[in-house]
Design brief:
6-stranded mixed beta sheet, 12 helices, alpha/beta, 11% strand
Length: 319
């Protein structure tokens, strides 16, 4: 039904507010989503789950999650928002939850936000315990707990999410069909591509319309950031208020991703005009929106990652 489809589309923006990484939660673009208004104040809850769900025995860690039961009524469902690649700060309960009369549950992905099992953020820990399978098992444990202890009257379980969390929703339904009754997978990336330069190019194509100077300015900014990232990384991090990345084992990678993702997400989520307006001081020539303009400023060469975007696993970008 159309009301449910409308609710699903709005839930995509609500989920953004739950899981956005820190570098996307500030500034004019973040303010345009009015994300803070969609997140009710609530205290986090915790569930002890195995660090390795597939080992015979081993240590456990505390899975962080939030609950919002404001829309839950008799005959309603358990609506689980899959964790994404960012900290979780609450659990919205919007039109989708209202349409399903659902109790909403939102967890935080292991190794994101303050969810660092056993305080170990080493590469060895990531390699061994940070995986899709472990994440799905975390959510499965949470669903069992929620159905037995929190909402035993729930009639079904629906998981939902967008982008990586959208793919995780589909994987949850496929991996745990007896536990999950339905999945709403919004814009899920279904094919993993290493060094996905086409994603960067698609952003620049979008930025080229209607005025190619926006893409050209973004390309110059990207090249400058790439140069500074190699020559003076600490200075650049401090300039962006990200001094905490200095000295971190993954600091350079995380910071480069933040630089790229900040601009590419503006394109991806319909805020291209805000980005182009900010880039206007860098325009170097009159408007070149004619048909003879180049399709994008990286014809024949690879774009610098910090300038074009780091979201290689995200869904297709639209102008």
């Amino acid at each position: 039904p159309l009301p449910l489809l409308h609710a699903i589309s709005l839930s995509r923006i609500g989920a953004l507010g739950v899981h956005l990484p820190e570098h996307l939660r500030h500034g004019s673009i973040a303010a345009s989503f009015e994300l803070s208004a969609s997140l009710p104040t609530s205290k986090p809850l915790y569930l002890d789950v195995p660090l390795d769900h597939f080992a015979v025995k081993g240590p456990s860690w505390r899975l962080k999650y939030y609950v919002n039961a404001t829309q839950f009524t008799a005959g309603g469902v358990l609506l689980v928002t899959m964790p994404s690649e960012g900290a979780t700060r609450g659990c919205p309960s919007g039109e989708l939850a209202q349409a399903l009369r659902a109790a909403s549950v939102c967890s935080q992905h292991r190794y994101f936000g303050d969810s660092v099992p056993l305080g170990d953020s080493s590469t060895r820990a990531f390699t061994k315990y940070l995986s899709v399978e472990q994440n799905l098992a975390d959510v499965a444990a949470l669903i069992r707990h929620a159905r037995s202890q929190l909402f035993p009257a729930a009639t079904a379980v629906v998981v939902q999410g967008g982008s990586y969390a959208g793919a995780s929703s589909a994987w949850m339904r496929r991996t745990y069909p007896k536990l999950v009754d339905a999945a709403i997978a919004q814009s899920p990336p279904v094919t993993a591509v290493y060094d996905f330069a086409r994603y960067d190019v698609s952003n620049l194509v979008a930025l080229s319309s209607p005025d190619s100077r926006c893409a050209q300015a973004q390309a110059r900014v990207g090249a400058a950031l790439t140069s500074l990232l190699h020559s003076s990384p600490g200075k650049l991090m401090r300039l962006f208020g990200a001094a905490h990345y200095e000295g971190s084992p993954t600091g350079m990678v995380d910071f480069a991703y933040a630089l790229g993702d900040s601009s590419s997400s503006a394109v991806q989520y319909g805020r291209k005009s805000i980005l182009c307006e900010a880039l206007q001081p860098g325009y170097s020539s009159p408007s070149s929106a004619s048909p003879s303009s180049p399709p994008h400023p990286y014809a024949g060469r690879s774009p610098p990652h910090p300038g074009g975007g780091g979201g290689g696993g995200r869904e297709n970008t639209h102008a």
